[in-house]
Amino acid sequence: MSYPTIADCVGNTPLVRLQRIIPAGRNNTILLKLEGNNPAGSVKDRPALSMIQQAQARGDIRRGDTLIEATSGNTGIALAMAAAIMGYRMILIMPDNATMERRWAMEAYGAELILVSKDSGMEGARDLALQMQQQGQGIVLNQFGNLDNPLAHYQGTGPEIWQQTQGQVSHFVSSMGTTGTIMGTSQYLKEQNPAVQIVGLQPADGAAIPGIRRWPQEYLPTIFDRQRVDQVLDIGQQEAEQTMRQLAREEGIFCGVSSGGAVAGALKLAEQVNDATIVAIICDRGDRYLSSGVFAPE
């Protein structure tokens, strides 16, 4: 008898229906893909495993090599898990304003952490990763330019959504950070039905939402193709956090701030369309954000 490994448990996450906070009168269905149900707790489990597996299959890396990646949190945790499964040393570089839960999770999987200042941000973390690679300290996986990132969603997330909705999905809503999720899922869904509308979310001016970015042009992920996104919505800090708390208290869905932003975007969309099946990504779990205070009573 063959038993699965933890790697076999990545993907095939539930798709659930919003019940209480959906706008009335337009006959829309809002469905949420619960990516926090992945083994390391986020949608990033998919590309993390894909990037290491594909690089290993090509012979670009070998067990025992040192891998390096800049991360704001979820990708780092997922890569730390994947490296533990497959026998790699993992160095993660992240801004020092990340929640302690994220740091502790990475260290629990055996990763080494290097912190850069909040002011340096993800741009500084990415620069340092490339500098370390140039110095021979390891190999950068580069989620921002690695086609194995969207490939994971083209092969997994997109087909799952299509099957779980029996081809009825009309709109797909996703926060945009590295943009791997929206790129791979968009490609697959558009191949099945070009009429499916792809909606990406970016932070409004002044918002600092983990997992959603408005990149300077020179740091824009090279995997991103604007033509694969039909509409871009700006999401404010307050509406993302309020929706996140509302999801926990009224729907029993405990998720992070970027997921709150994704659902806020889906709810905006649901006020503009009729008879739609809207799918949004719940990219992680809320327990990663408890120490930040975002779930404290308002």
Automatic annotation (TrEMBL):
Please give the Gene Ontology molecular function terms for this protein. cysteine synthase activity
* Database matches in InterPro entries: Cys_synth, Cys_Synth/Cystath_Beta-Synth, CysM, P-phosphate_BS, TrpB-like_PALP, TrpB-like_PALP_sf
Transmembrane segments annotated in the record for this chain: none
Q: Which UniProt keywords apply?
A: Amino-acid biosynthesis, Cysteine biosynthesis, Pyridoxal phosphate, Transferase
Give the catalysed reaction(s), semicolon-separated. Answer: O-acetyl-L-serine + hydrogen sulfide = L-cysteine + acetate
Q: In which pathway does it act?
A: Amino-acid biosynthesis; L-cysteine biosynthesis; L-cysteine from L-serine: step 2/2
What cofactor does this protein call for? pyridoxal 5'-phosphate
Q: Give all residue intervals belonging to the Tryptophan synthase beta chain-like PALP domain.
A: 7-284
- Per the record, the domain of life is Bacteria
Listed EC numbers: 2.5.1.47
Q: Which Gene3D superfamilies match?
A: 3.40.50.1100
* Family of this protein: Belongs to the cysteine synthase/cystathionine beta-synthase family.
Protein name (database record): Cysteine synthase
Q: Please tell me the species this chain comes from.
A: Bacterioplanoides pacificum
Gene that encodes the chain: cysM
